[in-house]
Amino acid sequence: MSSYVSRFCLGTEGGVTVAIKDTIDIKGLPTRAGSKALEEAAPAADHAEVVQNLLDAGAEITGKTTLHELAFGVSGINDHAGTAVNAKFPDLIPGGSSSGSAAAVAEGSARIALGTDTGGSVRIPAACCGVYGLKPTFGRVSRKGVMPDATSLDCVGPFANSIEDLEWAMSAIDPTFTPERVESARIGYLPGQATPEIDAMVRAALEHEGTRVEEVTLPSFLAAFEAGVAIINAENWAALGSIQATGKVSPDVGDRIYAARLVTPEEVATSEEIRSRITAEIDALFTKVDVIALPTLSQAPPTLTRARTDPTAVAVTRNVRAFNLSGHPALAMPLGALNDAPVSLQLVGPKQRDALLCAVAGLLTL
């Protein structure tokens, strides 16, 4: 299967099938993160906590999935470990970095998949592949046994083809998660964050018998994007600099890791100030609305061919990165196709209200 690095069976035969991104440890298997530099990695001594939780919930783990190398990229293109095929939109990028996990769910070879999201790496491939993807509240889901060891941004999150399956996955990896249902929701829409056609399609999807929609603003939204870039670069240099030094990392990723060393402590300090500001702005909105909505992607995903020749074409993190910086839960929800490309709605909720976020997404699918 195109989306798998490796295929095997672990856990309850006949259980819910789950694929695991290859930055998440599975006991007895090396965690290679899609990189030649980690080809000689030793087998993991233990399951990551989320993997053990899935097994305890009766899941059947069916494989480890490919990704954008070292989880540092958004196209999903990986010429070493393999580029996952976007089953619903095969000419387009699968998105990254959790490309194989989204593709496995889209093609039906796994009912659930786990990815990680540092700057959109669950929501972007979910949007590109036309599936659901959830970045939980930062710190809510265990990262024990997940690369990198230290992060202020990264979250483990699930992919699925339905809200019900997404909720099952969250209940499995986070025993504190209890699904909710709602009959109404106050939605704050952040306008002007996509092409006019996408913006209109996403805005229309919010109209429901139980919804009340109002337009909202986030003054620090653009600054939060830039701050998120600075922090992810600083943290990736700390986590991946020694791997980059092996000379075995592809130029696509290795050059960006090396450039990340130039982020200064002053830039990080300024970015942390912006983190506090955008967090306060988002929290303030939740005194007026239940969730915030905006397009997941500001434009259609590029073709694989264009992404290879024009790196600027992969401008898909604009609408997602701020919520890694702030730590709020965010969910990508497929809306269908527009001009043969996927359109995805992003919902953002209050911290620790991940179940409410899923419930509002469920309301919008009725």
Automatic annotation (TrEMBL):
It comes from the Bacteria. It holds the Pfam family Amidase. GO terms for molecular function: catalytic activity. InterPro entries: Amidase, Amidase_CS, Amidase_dom, AS_sf. Residues 15-358 form the Amidase domain. This is Amidase. It comes from Celeribacter neptunius.
